[in-house]
Design brief:
mainly alpha, 3 strands, 12 helices, three-stranded antiparallel beta sheet, about 375 residues
Length: about 375
C-alpha cells in the first residue's frame, strides 16, 4: 500500500482551519490596536501589542497542529492518567496562589512571557478522558453504578475546581460535553434523562446563588433596563451590527472598537467583524465553522474504533458549544458567559487548544482514510486472486 501526503489528509478541513485562524489574527489586530495603544496590559502603549502576542500563539499552534495531525491518537489512551493528573494539578495551582487574576476571576497561570488558562486545556483533557473511559465501558454502559457513574466523579471534581475560579461558562460546557458523550456511548434513556435533570438543577442553583451571576445571565433579556452596566456590552454590540450592515464600514473602520465596546477583541469580536465586514464577513465565519463541524461529524461517523469515534464527536461538540454560546451571546439570544469565539477571538490558550483539538480530528480522519484504502487494496487483491 502506498501512502500519499495528498490523499492521506483531509485538506478541506485543514485549509479551513488555517483560513479562519489567520482571519482571526487579522481581526484581533483590527479590533485591539486602539486598546493596545491606550489600555494595553501594563500600559504598553503599543498598538501592535495584541497582534504580536496572538501571532506568536498562532505560530506555536501551527507547530503543534502539524505534530498532533501526525501523532497516533490511540496513544492518548495510554496518556489519559497523565492528562488527568495535569488537569487537576493545573487547576489546583491556579487556586493556591500561583494563578493570576483578571476581570474579577482567577483563571490563569503565568509561565514566563506566557499566560495560560488551564481550563481551556482541561476541556480537551476531559474529552480525551471521557472518550477513553466510556469506550471501555461499552459492555456494561447500561448499568449506572458500574458503567456511567465512576467517570462522573472525576468530572464533578473538575467542575468544582473550575467554579472556584469562577468560570460558569467553561464548567457548563464540560458538563454538556460529558452528557453528550454518555449519550453516544449508549447509556439508558432513564439515566440520560436523570442526569439532564440533575445538571439543569445544578446550573439553576449556581445561576441564582450569586447576584452578579444572575444579573449577567438574565441581562440579555432586556439590556436596555440597565444600559450603563449589565446591558452595556450587548447594547454596544447591537450598535456595531447595525453600523456594519451588509458589507461593513471596511477593515479597520469600526467605531465601536474605539473603547465603546468592552472586550471587543475577545468575547465580542464577532460584533467588530460585522461592523467592519458586514453580514458577509459574519457569513464567512459561519461557513468556516460549518465546514469544520460537518467534516468533524463525518470523521466520527466513519471511525470504526469506539475511542476514536467518541473522541471525534466530543471534540466536535465541544467546538459547537463554544460557537453557539459565543454567537448566541453576541446576538442577544443567549446569556453572556465569557466564552470566546474559537480560532477568532484573542486568547493564546483558546487558539492553541482549539487547533490541537482539530489536529486530532485530522489525525483520526487520516487513520480513517488509510483504513479505507487498506480495505480497498485487500478487496482488489481478492478480486484478482
Amino acid at each position: 500500500m502506498k501512502y500519499s501526503i495528498i490523499k492521506d489528509h483531509d485538506w478541506l478541513l485543514i485549509l479551513t482551519v488555517f483560513a479562519l485562524a489567520s482571519f482571526g489574527v487579522l481581526m484581533v489586530f483590527s479590533s485591539s490596536y486602539v486598546e493596545g495603544m491606550y489600555m494595553g496590559e501594563g500600559g504598553s502603549g503599543d498598538p501592535y501589542f495584541f497582534l504580536k502576542r496572538q501571532a506568536v500563539w498562532f505560530l506555536l499552534a501551527t507547530i503543534l497542529f502539524i505534530f498532533f495531525m501526525h501523532f497516533n491518537y490511540h496513544v492518548f489512551k495510554k496518556l489519559t492518567p497523565f492528562i488527568l493528573i495535569l488537569s487537576f494539578l493545573s487547576l489546583f495551582l491556579v487556586l493556591v496562589g500561583f494563578g493570576s487574576s483578571g476581570g474579577g476571576a482567577q483563571r490563569w497561570l503565568q509561565l514566563g512571557p506566557f499566560r495560560l488558562q488551564p481550563s481551556e486545556f482541561v476541556k480537551l483533557g476531559m474529552v480525551i478522558y471521557l472518550a477513553q473511559v466510556y469506550s471501555q465501558k461499552q459492555v456494561y454502559i447500561h448499568k449506572f453504578i458500574k458503567g456511567v457513574l465512576p467517570p462522573l466523579i472525576v468530572v464533578g471534581l473538575i467542575f468544582i475546581l473550575i467554579m472556584r475560579q469562577p468560570d460558569l461558562g467553561t464548567a457548563t460546557a464540560i458538563l454538556m460535553v460529558t452528557f453528550f458523550i454518555i449519550f453516544l456511548s449508549g447509556a439508558r434513556w432513564i439515566h440520560i434523562i436523570g442526569l439532564g435533570v440533575v445538571g439543569g438543577s445544578l446550573f439553576t442553583v449556581l445561576a441564582v446563588s450569586e447576584s452578579y451571576r444572575f444579573r449577567r445571565l438574565t441581562s440579555f433579556v432586556d439590556p436596555f433596563a440597565d444600559p450603563m452596566n449589565d446591558g452595556l456590552q450587548l447594547i454596544q454590540g447591537y450598535i456595531a451590527f447595525a453600523h456594519g450592515g451588509l458589507t461593513g464600514t471596511g477593515l479597520g473602520g469600526s467605531v465601536q472598537k474605539l473603547l465603546y465596546l468592552p472586550e471587543a477583541h475577545t468575547d465580542f469580536i464577532l460584533a467588530i467583524i460585522s461592523e467592519e465586514l458586514g453580514i458577509l464577513g459574519v457569513l464567512f465565519v459561519l461557513a468556516c465553522y460549518g465546514v469544520i463541524l460537518f467534516k468533524g461529524v463525518l470523521v466520527g461517523i466513519k471511525c470504526k474504533n469506539p475511542f476514536g469515534s467518541l473522541l471525534a464527536f466530543g471534540i466536535v461538540f465541544q467546538l459547537a458549544i463554544q460557537v453557539v454560546f459565543n454567537i448566541g451571546a453576541v446576538s442577544g439570544l443567549l446569556p453572556i458567559t465569557g466564552i470566546t469565539l474559537p480560532l477568532v477571538s484573542n486568547g493564546g490558550s483558546s487558539l492553541l487548544v482549539t487547533m490541537v483539538s482539530i489536529a486530532i480530528l485530522a489525525n483520526i480522519s487520516r487513520h480513517n482514510i488509510r483504513q479505507n484504502r487498506l480495505k480497498e487494496d485487500f478487496d482488489n487483491q481478492v478480486k484478482t486472486a
